Amino acid sequence: MRVRRIVPSVVLAIACAALAFVPGPRRLADDGARTCRAEVVEVDDSSLQLHGFVEFGTQHLKVRLPDGRVVSADNELRAQMELDKKFAPGDTALVVVPGQGAPDGAALVARDHWRLGWCTALFAAFCVLLCAFGGWTGAKALFSFVFSCLAVWKLLIPLVLAGWHASTVSFLVVACLTGVIMYLVAGWTKKAFSAFAGSMLGVVASLGLAHVVARVMHVNGATMPFAQQLLFSGYSFMDLQDVFIGAIVLASSGAVMDLGMDIAAGVCEVKRHNPSLGFRELFMSGIRMGRAVVGTMTTTLLLAYSGGYITLLMVFAAQGTHPLDILSSTLVSAELVKTLVGSFGLVLVAPFTALVSAAVFARASSAVER
User: Fold this and answer.
1) Helices 330-362 and 240-273 sit at what angle, rounded to 10 degrees?
2) pTM score of the predicted model
3) What ranges do the domains of the chain cover?
4) Of 25, 99, 326, 353, which is most buried by a Cβ count within 10 Å?
């Protein structure tokens, strides 16, 4: 029994290691430049100009590289608060060292603050807390977390950039992640199959509805951050609307998996405690559990999406914009599509999972999963 519980985790760990060696998204041009950390030792702000709340110009820096050399670096401020950064002596910066083709004496580029140290410490603390609280289940959840990150970065993004349909690739990646996570958490059991099948039926419904609603409401996907920059970076062939649809499926998949597993696990427990129950009783039990969970899960999606655009809503409120104008705006319409389509699929997961779970467990002669 112990071997059956360990083998899936070992297989997933091997899969994570294999994905780690898969080449990431290719660079459009390789000029030989490299990045490294550097300590900021001197700052010259004389070239900066203040325009209201923002600054514009070049911040000239002296930075100390890991080999001890002190060289010049430039930090360009574009009067964009979401992108600009400002350095002070003692800060640690991520700098770009020019390649061999760069002119002699060319200044380095200070790309951003060096945050890898704190990110590593935070991730390590998260791993320790997860494993300490969840034990072996926490360790499996950690494997699935790492696998999800690698699948998105090493599979989904490179394939979409290569010209594959974003919605199709997103669906396949979500199907892979759902299967891995369900079977890793619940093992090769009827509960895992029921949760997987119900979740995927909900994802399929969301995908189909997203294609229809995005076209009917004329949501072109350009509302996503850096969408226009992506087109001008050599990917003018990219279908932003299809990318937007894929993002809807990917963003709502986590909540879909949670709800699917909740209902499948609940039906499993009902059957375990009363093996004589048939299809109808199990199905209605799953429906009642779904009704209790769906309300909070849909609100979770609403708060998650609205939180990303809270400043936009504050601007509308500060300007006294009429609610009809707000609902008709491109940005708000895109968020409405995300929220409502994701919630639509989420609501459907409950009856789908209840139906599959009832059909699977009604056939079992005992409550013991095989």
Assistant:
1) 30
2) 0.82
3) 34-114, 163-362
4) 353
